Amino acid sequence: MTTPPPAPEHLHHWVVTLSCIDGPGIVHAISGAIVAARGNITESQQFASLDTGRFFMRLQVESQASRDEFEAALAPVTERWQMQWHLDEVGRALRTLVLASTAGHCVNDLLFRQRAGQLPVEIPLVLSNHGTLRDLVDFYGVPFESLAVTDAASKAAFEARVLAAVDEHDIELVVLARYMQILSPELCDALAGRCINIHHSFLPGFKGANPYRQAHARGVKLIGATAHFVTSDLDEGPIIEQNVVRVDHSRSPGELVAIGQDEESRTLSQAVKWFAERRVLLDGARTIIFR
Amino acid sequence: MTTPPPAPEHLHHWVVTLSCIDGPGIVHAISGAIVAARGNITESQQFASLDTGRFFMRLQVESQASRDEFEAALAPVTERWQMQWHLDEVGRALRTLVLASTAGHCVNDLLFRQRAGQLPVEIPLVLSNHGTLRDLVDFYGVPFESLAVTDAASKAAFEARVLAAVDEHDIELVVLARYMQILSPELCDALAGRCINIHHSFLPGFKGANPYRQAHARGVKLIGATAHFVTSDLDEGPIIEQNVVRVDHSRSPGELVAIGQDEESRTLSQAVKWFAERRVLLDGARTIIFR
Amino acid sequence: MTTPPPAPEHLHHWVVTLSCIDGPGIVHAISGAIVAARGNITESQQFASLDTGRFFMRLQVESQASRDEFEAALAPVTERWQMQWHLDEVGRALRTLVLASTAGHCVNDLLFRQRAGQLPVEIPLVLSNHGTLRDLVDFYGVPFESLAVTDAASKAAFEARVLAAVDEHDIELVVLARYMQILSPELCDALAGRCINIHHSFLPGFKGANPYRQAHARGVKLIGATAHFVTSDLDEGPIIEQNVVRVDHSRSPGELVAIGQDEESRTLSQAVKWFAERRVLLDGARTIIFR
Amino acid sequence: MTTPPPAPEHLHHWVVTLSCIDGPGIVHAISGAIVAARGNITESQQFASLDTGRFFMRLQVESQASRDEFEAALAPVTERWQMQWHLDEVGRALRTLVLASTAGHCVNDLLFRQRAGQLPVEIPLVLSNHGTLRDLVDFYGVPFESLAVTDAASKAAFEARVLAAVDEHDIELVVLARYMQILSPELCDALAGRCINIHHSFLPGFKGANPYRQAHARGVKLIGATAHFVTSDLDEGPIIEQNVVRVDHSRSPGELVAIGQDEESRTLSQAVKWFAERRVLLDGARTIIFR
């Protein structure tokens, strides 16, 4: 919906996400509050979950209202419905911490896309348990630290450094870009809902070591990757994005690894992009993706 | 949004589509009317066109309200905003007339999917300017008529039969399933907005006879199909759906034809499905597709 | 390569598949034999397996030579290299027995494609442990038998009927089109390399009952299907074809089932088509697919 | 086919491409020559063109033979069949000159992939008719020159610089990475078969200025890109690769441009990769792509 054209210098472009217990009249109440905030809805998506009974919404709104005025206009509705909600500027770069180990494909893809303006994030630090990726990260002009993890004490030190960096840089998202250490339950809890991991995926799944070799031995025709929120239940957090690519019998185990890494890179970058654009909402163990 | 659970036997599942000149407050007004109609919105999509300044919306609503009560609840809003709007039951089979010539692939695909319950249409008649497809159509138990078109008089007779069939069967959609005659401007006008055609498409486009042979000669790597509304401007109506498929140098012109026909079949069926589900709205020369 | 154009009425179109222990000179020997058989290679694919050390080849050859002359020309090569090989006419319909239970989607797809000329098979019988699909199979004019399986004795009777039908109709391929009984190890052995099964597939895999409900609960973004050869190791035979399709949070468990069934249908039909065209060769636990 | 394992330090990995007038016995003769060169065929593709009567082949061969020995072994065959042929080391970086104007997306993608080891080329120079991209190219450490083109004389000077650079750097491929000047017929001829261009593509095609705006106005559902060899017939040279991506009504003309640029980048990089791997052969106005 359009309002009379405002002076461009005062026009904000807001993204609003919210969720609450579902019930009659929510959309009506929200749209009324947007009108009160002199807002023009330019994008709107909603979903009512039959699983949890919750209602979810994402709006992009153009408005001359300041943040204070906008929040004040929404307050009666968000309070009455006891909403979890978030207000942000469209396109604001999300402060993102990247954790890595020795594999560079995901880190490279994230930094390249960030630099090319395809990913609305800023990355104040890449933190690794190895020094391998220093040159790659330097190339993009991003600070890099490495801190070896060899035993329980050094692991605790690494995780303490993660939490310190989160504080120091006011981090909103932690990305495990092939960081090959299992996070402690405490760190998983501290980063709940704002930590994304990537791993390879196969049809069918393969347990145990060297899944690409197993996939080759079974002659799988599709290999892929899954990006998901980190929970203390290893590789079982809410799924954000998945992709697969077709392979055939002529591919060696080494080629399958290379193909799988490409899928990991693009799947992780896609998940980070959606998260940064506030398109990912949590509904219990599931994600709602407002693409 | 949910209302208290109604007795299931009285629960309607409505699909509402509407469009009007865009302006502040439309969503708020509509959602208010849905609340008044004791409705629970289960699916909602909207779009504001910067090209035409119009606002478009599609809603699926569960409600115990009868059609009369529902329409009465919406009337103040639709009148105030001078909306074009439509109310229908979700899943109702659309009365569809199919026109064909000698090629059977699109007709076969439509009849198969209709019979398999994948296409919410009923087809009271297939009308052709040839007798070729009689056995195929008989196989699906659908009435078939043929009427040769050889000159201006027989063409006029065929088109008169089309209009009579539209009347007789209260037809809501006419599908040109590789009907190889050009419709007269009068018939195009009479069927405006409810007649869908299919044709092959290439990158780049090829003019003139035998485009598949030209496509082969140029070694194109993609061939496809476009489903569009029929207008008196041949092959230039609003596009509903397009698909392409990858081909390579090893394909003969004959194989390209077969591959192109598969694309035509699935593209036409997809367009018909979306139209029957009220997912296709017209915005000037463009379509809005609420998938 | 072309030979001088033969009288068309004598021109055969042969498909040759072969495998043997890899070694220098095989392609040279084979191509020499084809020249001796007055053959013109129109399609040729080869693969050397590093896993098993075996060499695989598929050729399509136009030749005026009769089957006897063709076999005689190849014999010195196939004998010297101790090849497993097969000679057939391109496009010959494969005699195929279909086993089913109550779900009709795969059976319907196979029968539809067979009738539409898209699948080079003939189906002399559909055999089921339920009567549910009789009308569907009748519609396509294919004989149908049902034989209840309720205990060990009736299961043995059903499997005996399968083997009798294989004999009686000289069956070359058995397709489990959602046949929901586990085959006995004896039947698996008897049908080794000529029995194809289909099942749903997920990223990640889900164990136990109602995988679609589990997939919904985890919010998976891709669901798919796998067609594979039947071995006595349940759902673990060599994979022939896999497909996935994208889904999102808005899909109910019931919709996921419908989407998964579409994938099962097209994946099974694709696998049957490649098998019938002699494009599927076995390399230990893997398949070579010469698409 | 395998030969006895050679000492690894002497093992070459050759790629052989060839074409000649089709006739019986070619494959037999070639495979015999490979045996004579102590070669082990690891990849092999062939195609007989019914359009031109020519036969095409690409082989990857492991052999301990030196280039001289290898060429000597093939000579009798290539001479007898009057073959056009080429022998190269697998993976050798192709010397590639990039021409650009002001748009950076294709240049960036080529340089990024080259640096990431995904593209077997070396790029001694990026030459532009504008200075816009200097910083981008500097970032990758590649030499950059700009030379304004404003009239016939400066255009001739630019093209002379292109030919001088081709000589100086022994260039094997010239890539027009959104170079927005039309090449003179003389330059097209001088670079025939080794100059690749990229342009956007639509279904249907749009003539005239601002095709993205036209595509938006028609509501196209697919936009794409075509990479092709440059000939003096503008945008009509043999097609190497094409891609499309799905769009919908919600995309502004500006977003369509961004999406189209992504397709241009990946399509051009794919075409360059196949060319550098000697997978692209010319058959009259068509390309054979041995993927």
From TrEMBL, chains A, B, C, D:
CDD domains: ACT_F4HF-DF (cd04875)
Known function: Catalyzes the hydrolysis of 10-formyltetrahydrofolate (formyl-FH4) to formate and tetrahydrofolate (FH4).
Known EC number: 3.5.1.10
Keywords recorded for this protein, A-Z: Hydrolase, One-carbon metabolism, Purine biosynthesis
InterPro entries referenced in this protein's UniProt entry, alphabetically: ACT-like_dom_sf, ACT_dom, Formyl_transf_N, Formyl_transf_N_sf, PurU, PurU_ACT
Active site: D235
Enzyme class: hydrolase
Protein name as it appears in the record: Formyltetrahydrofolate deformylase
NCBIfam families: PRK06027.1, PurU
Positions of the ACT domain: 15-92
Catalytic activity line of the entry: (6R)-10-formyltetrahydrofolate + H2O = (6S)-5,6,7,8-tetrahydrofolate + formate + H(+)
Domain of life according to the entry: Bacteria
Pathway: Purine metabolism; IMP biosynthesis via de novo pathway; formate from 10-formyl-5,6,7,8-tetrahydrofolate: step 1/1
HAMAP family tied to this protein: PurU
UniProt KW Hydrolase keyword: yes
